[in-house]
Amino acid sequence: MTIRPLNDRVLLRRIEPEEVVKGGIIIPDTAKEKPQEAEVIAVGPGRLDDSGKRVPIEVKKGDRVLIGKYSGTDIKIGDEEYVIVREDEILGVIEK
To answer: Is the whole-model pTM more than 0.85?
Structure first.
């Protein structure tokens, strides 16, 4: 199954940060915060401006981005969890 976001929406998969625990303390999943780093899985065609012209989205599939902890709508497809956000909810692109 593939998902194609509409308009200026972007489909993301949150990237879990590497766990470095000092002293052997294990934090349960329920106490962890949502990761703010995500990978772009799919993008929509872009939004329409006031004159009806399509404004393309600046991010592309494969980009790593930063989003707010509680941004977007969480969805689950099969065993995978995704989040759909509007382009303006993306805080920045991580460049290496």
So the answer is: no
